[in-house]
Amino acid sequence: MLQKISFIIFSFIICSNSLVAQMMNQDTLSGKLEDVFITATRSERKFSNLAVSAIVVNKKTIQQTGSLKLQDILQEQTGIVIVNSNLATSLAGYPNPFGQGVQMLGLDPAYTAILLDGEPLVGRNAGILKLGRIATGNIQQIEIVKGPSSSLYGSEAMAGVINIITAKPTAQNIDVQLHAATNNTFAQTVSYANRFIKTGVQFFINRYSTGGYDLDKNIYGKTVDPYRDWTMHAKITHDFSAKTQLLLSLRNVDSKQTNDYQITWQSQPAIVKGFTEEKDRSFFAQFRYNRSANSRIYFRTFFNNYSNKSFVNLENQDVRFDETSFNQTILKPEIQFEHSHNSTSKYVAGVGAYFETIDASRYAGKQRLATAYAFTQNEWNFYQDKLTLITGIRLDKRTDFDLNVSPRIAAAFKPNRFWKITASAGWGFKAPDFRHMYLSFYNAQIGYSLIGCNVLANELQNMQQQGALQAGANINPYLVSKTLMPEKSFGTHIGTKYSKGKINIEAGIFRNDINNLIDVYLLPFKKTNNSNIYSYQNINRIFTQGADVDVKYQLFKSIAISAGYQYLEAKDKDILSQIESGKMYKRDPITYQSSVVKKADYFGINNRSKHTINAKILWTNEAKGWNAFVRFVYRGKFGFTDVNGNNIADDQRELVHGFWMTNIAASKNINQKISLQVGVENLMDYTNAAQLPNISGRIFFVNLNFSFNHFNH
Amino acid sequence: MKRFILFSLVGIVALASCTKDSATPVTIISGTKTISVPFSSATAFTLFRFSDSTVVANTDSASNKWDFGLRFTTFIVNSYAGGPGSAGAILNNGTFDATPTAPTTGYAYDTTATQRAIKDGSWYDYNGATRTFAPKAGKVFLFKTADGVHYAKMELLSVDYAPFVGMYPTTLLYKFRYAYQANGTTTF
Lengths: 713, 188
Description:
Helix content of chain A is 8%, strand content 54%. Chain A is built from 8 helices and 37 strands. The longest helix of chain A is centred in the first third of the chain and has 11 residues, at 2-12. Chain B has one domain (26-181). By secondary structure, chain B is mainly beta. Chain B has one helix at 2-23, and strands spanning 28-38, 46-49, 54-56, 68-71, 74-77, 88-93, 124-127, 132-135, 139-144, 151-161, 171-181. Helix content of chain B is 12%, strand content 36%. Chain B has a 5-stranded antiparallel sheet with strand order 1-11-10-9-6, with no helix packed on it. A 4-stranded antiparallel sheet of chain B has the order 3-2-4-5, with no helix packed on it. At the A-B interface, β29 and β30 of A face β10 of B.
């Protein structure tokens, strides 16, 4: 009865549809009830009606995996690979603590927009947003759209969008979770939600701490140093009337990590120690006004400040060896309008602006950028929803470059209730970011300088005046002011979906062509200490193409299985044309003699696996409160390094071998309020210290969950 | 059967070489050489002569006795700012084997001390993480020798540090293969 009442309350008040109720009762693998999906259209749609390639991961699946790390959950999704970055700008000599991100459709992490409740997160380091900043405990649903989505989300949404939707204040409940795992990892989570007639509150607090891990005992320092994160997230909704609602959201993430590693100091090995502190604060206010049953307006303001301060001191000496600071702020006001015309058409439009400020020790001065944007999208439904057609376009104008236009067109055709065929094409873009323009970084340990395009002329002149450049260095060609252009892509996707009874199959093919890709290049002269100088320019033209297939099958009432596979080719067009014209050479690693690279030898862009596989088995016994979830993830071999003098992957020795990861979790509801979950991640204890330091060894974990629903009734 | 084929092959090769030898005298001097080069921008250059594959003493630097010199990663050739000779160089993209002739024109010279025939940094990649020099693949050096009338081709195979104690290396070992045409023609 109570459940019914709360059900009715939130059906009426909170959501315009029963989005949350559906999600709560829904099981992804069996897919009986339907998910509602926001990200693909910026407004709520039934998952089955989408015309683009999308994945939804709901709260129940996240809970069944038992993982507290977002990257673990993401990497089990078809077509998503968690990769390391090769050039992050961390403390001098520090082993790259920021390097993990999402690779989608074969594109680097910088090309996937990561949103939290629809709003962008700032503070990317070398293009990578640290996924650890997002706690999983209050995630209601993860929505993933594959393919260019700049028509709705602008820059960065070139490969796709990952939108993390956190819990909304619905029913009364308190949830407490205690987590303990290998490597002295502990986490405590408390979430509280309540409704007071017209006001809903949701409060979430999480502390996560870990001792880190060490994959190579012969090297001083841990592979990942100990850290602790605090996450707090509060949401308040207030319904002024049936037509108007205010949503306020406050989020604060506070992270502190030890730095402890070896450097070379005055020609001697020395130890440095310190801390890295990160703070991520955001504020979001949204006022929703329902003009009528089929028309509404949103007024939104989003503010996010991300700061990162790091330092290391020489051990036993009061000498600061290195310190960095980074502070980025974004203010984003936006108005969005939605209108639906019966069930035949739906219209979404919006205007907004970004005001970005960055102040970082490695950037030349405090920098500001402003972007104004407008988007519009229309969706038509024909023949009783059998055919859906979507057209959308977005305009972005940033202060420093020309108007950027990103259109998209998509169609879905459902000949009967079993089949769906989709096709979409869209343009994506990524504006050059602060690092490309303003970075001024010298890594003393590895010995290179990386200088942003806009400050290059100035920095080179300074270096030359200070006598820091090699004699005879001709800097004149670099004194002409150059500006980077936005990177542009065009992507297409054709997919089909078949679902009947116990089986659900999705398959698709995709192709993306990217021009103007910004990459580092080496300047033809060096500093007097023989260290290289790099800067950024629009050089590369690449393509990525492939196919994916995803099968879900309800084997028995209690057992659901699923499997996904992605085939990917990602190649640099300029390298391909060099190979085709016989101008790409390689050096034999034994005789050292040069020969011509054959086309068949070119493996593709580094860090891209041709084959990725995931397989999952979920066993549930509702009556007895048991469930067990086994997942296998395979990442096929990928290019990593160069051994034969041409900086492309064209030799088996340059590849990292493919590997499997096995993750298992099992949980038991002890009673209505308490459940216990145990599990193991990376069961086979796969590690690769040199090439994949982000993968820790085997992890055992225990979760104890307390759930007190409707506690005061 | 395998052995028979092998024998036949050896026979054919031997026969072929014999025929060639008897037809024209060998005028191509070729081989692989490793030379020691100082790991310093201040000490004297290591000088090399193709005609007899010899490292020339630096006391002979003001003579025509050497063709090119190396110090750290800096190449000099024996002309103008480099020396009294007429040596020039071309850095081509290609493979050693697929470079059967040298051009007679188009050579760059050590015009000034800062404008060398071979630009520093144009022929190798330095890996800061491993602190290693890797000569770029597919680069062929073509030389006009100090006397201005002979030609040679050269491919850098590797640049390694000689074993050292302490923090810094003292010597780089440059390994290269080369071919020198002693009869004054441009074919190798």
